[in-house]
Amino acid sequence: MHHDPGDETTRARFAGLLLLLMATVAAAGEAASSPTNHSIPAIAEIAKIKVGFSTQQDLASQWGEGKTITGGHPNSGRLWRVKGTPWVLHTDAFEYSKRGLVVDGLEIREDRTPGEGVPYARLSASDLAWLGEISLGASQDRVMEVLKRKGLQVTQTAAGCETRATGLHTLENKVQFRTWKVRVDFKAGLLIRLAIDAGS
Q: I need a surface site. Which of 15, 60, 94, 116 has the fewest CB within 10 A?
């Protein structure tokens, strides 16, 4: 009986394709059974970090060590100044992820007397433009125009307004961040405070 070497080649190719298909299906099943434990909304991002995801160590690496103050935990708060401005950065943290103590609150405000020993962050004022466009000192009209253009829902507050977004970050002890809120306060029509918070 004549043996056609082409048959073996065809069978080998078929077997190879079958193995590849099985591996692809297995990988897809594995991905479906272990989804990523975080999805952070854009409003949480500022100055190379993500509130509700980045850890205190991440901030220290990016910005330099801040002044330690009392926060949600003893010594969990941090303060920095911003060169060339009267701005102060204040962060706090309470919950842990596998990567460390997660920063769940960040505030930028004007403060010309922040106290002794508050270091300058390794940041410029332009690094602190929220959504890439909004910085302290911006006019209220400008801020509202950016929020509207980016399709963010706005709720009025006594001192300004706030916007919210949903996401997910699964932490230790089954804690999850699911809601992010950003509040902006104005005085005399100018932005004087911006606060980003992550919560359940």
A: 116
Please give the angle made by the CA atoms of 20, 24 and 26, to the nearest 5 degrees: 115
Rounded to whole angstroms, the Cα distance separating 53 from 36 reads 13
Cα–Cα separations (whole angstroms), residue 178 to 40, 42, 79, 84: 9, 13, 26, 35
Q: Is 134 left (phi over 0), alpha (psi -120 to 50) or beta?
A: beta
CA angle 168, 171, 174 (to 5 degrees): 100
Q: Which amino acid is at 16?
A: G
Q: Are 51 and 38 in contact (CB under 8 A)?
A: no
Q: What's this model's pTM, rounded to 2 decimal places?
A: 0.81
Q: What is the mean pLDDT of the chain?
A: 88
What are the tokens at 24?
């692809």
